[in-house]
Amino acid sequence: MSPYFAIQYIPSERVARVAFAGRLELAERVRAMRQVAEKYHHLKPLRLLVDLRYQDPSSMAAGEQRQMAEFVRTNPVLREAHIAMLYGRDYRATALVSGLVARALPNARAFMVESEAMAWLRVAYTRHCPVPVAAAGRFGGVRSVSKVGAG
Q1: DSSP code at position 11
Q2: Residue 52 and which of 19, 45, 92, 93 are 20 to 30 A apart at CA?
Q3: What is the pLDDT of residues 72-122, one digit of tens each?
Q4: 3-state secondary structure of 4
Q5: CB contact burial 133-146 (16+ within 10 A = b; e otherwise)
Q6: Whole-model pTM?
Q7: What is 16-34 written as a DSSP string?
Q8: What is the pLDDT of residue 24?
Q9: What distance lies between CA 119 and its chain's CA centroid?
């Protein structure tokens, strides 16, 4: 598999997704994460699904994985983001970086099942949504909610 990364936004989920495939160097991974931060910095909170299932599991040395985790931890957009890292069964190479990121950032988690990662990101959104989801109108506006029995 030739190395690449792909960035997309899933509007129905309000989630940015970056997928890595093949054998990527640290510089390419940092470039991908920097692009995500620049493109989606306006989303509060940024919810990010990082798909590591198709990357070459031996593509980054332990030192590079630590550098990647440090980049994510120190980037002002990414450190505030909710990050779900999705990895496959052979996750030895990504386990270190996933673990480092998850320990450094309270809003990061590692998953092996995509539906579980998306469910966690949905909960992260509803927890930080300024208006309860049930009170949001058809177009995302706010419906007035009256208090009953407040007399």
Answers
A1: T
A2: 45
A3: 989 999 999 999 989 887 665 555 566 666 677 778 888 889 999 999 999
A4: strand
A5: eeeeeeeeeeeeee
A6: 0.76
A7: EEEEEEES--HHHHHHHHH
A8: 87
A9: 12
The answer, yes or no, to whether residue 144 has pLDDT greater than 80, is no
List Cβ neighbours of 5 (8 Å cut-off, separation of 6 or more): 18, 19, 20, 21, 24, 28, 29, 32
- For the structural domain made of 4-135, what CATH number should be given? 3.30.750
**CA 94 from centroid of its chain's CA atoms:** 15
Boundaries of every domain in the chain: 4-135
Which of 75, 88, 90 is CA-nearest to residue 29? Answer: 75
Q: Which residues contact 81 (CB under 8 A, 6 or more apart)?
A: 45, 46, 47, 48, 107
> pLDDT tens for residues 43-74?
988 999 999 888 887 777 778 878 888 899 89
Tokens matching residue 130: 């300024």
